[in-house]
Amino acid sequence: MDANVWLWILAGFLALIFLGTGILKLTRTRDEIVEQGLAWAEDYPESTLRWLGWAEVLGAVGVVLPPSVGLGIVVPVTAVALGLLMVGALVVHVRRRELLPDALRTLALIAMCAVLAGYRFGPEAF
Predict the structure, then answer these.
(1) With contact defined as beta carbons under 8 Å apart, do 55 and 71 qualify?
(2) Dihedral-angle region of residue 45 (phi above 0 means left; psi in -120 to 50 means alpha; beta otherwise)
(3) Is 123 helix (H, G, I), strand (E, B) or coil?
(4) How far apart are CA 4 and CA 70, in angstroms?
(5) Transmembrane region positions (predicted)?
(6) Which residues contact 83 (CB under 8 A, 6 or more apart)?
(7) Which letter does DSSP use for residue 89 in this model?
(8) Within 13 Å, how many C-alpha atoms sit on residue 63's CB side?
(9) pLDDT digits over 20-65, tens only?
(10) Is this prediction's pTM over 0.85?
(11) CA angle, 19 as apex, 101 and 7 as ends, to 5°?
């Protein structure tokens, strides 16, 4: 399989994950988010959850839409930004001792963002 194809698959996968979690944070109250299994949300005000939701939705759009309008450089920049957002999430999960599966899942997202950014900045740039 061509590297460009699997990078598009990876970008689509990341977009779906971040779009889903972002919409959840934008459309639910903090209590509903906690009930959905995101216990860490109880430590933050709803305004912070909304901000995180918007960051995730914009990130989801940023890893798939820009190449179609000639702004391919936005993809790796967005992947780095999402990766940094996930580093912050990792810190939260480790502090709360939410190691399995939360911190492990977050590490996987960081790795996927790093792979996408690395390839799109490098050998598979648009």
Answers:
(1) no
(2) beta
(3) coil
(4) 16
(5) 6-27, 71-92, 104-122
(6) 109, 110, 113, 114, 117
(7) H
(8) 31
(9) 999 999 999 999 999 999 999 999 999 999 999 999 999 999 999 9
(10) yes
(11) 85
Separation of alpha carbons 42 and 59, rounded Å:
23
Rounded CA separation 8/34 (Å): 32
* Other C-beta atoms lying within 10 Å of the C-beta of residue 85: 19
pLDDT band at 12 (very low <50, low <70, confident <90, very high): very high
Query: What's the one-letter identity of residue 59?
Result: G
Instruction: Name the helix (H) or strand (E) containing 30.
Output: helix 30-35
Token readout for 126 is: 């648009």
Q: Which amino acid type is present at position 15?
A: A
Name the one residue in this structure whose structure tokens are 């740039």. Answer: 125
pLDDT at 1 over 90: no
Report helix, strand or coil for 14: helix
**CA 98/CA 19 separation, integer angstroms:** 23
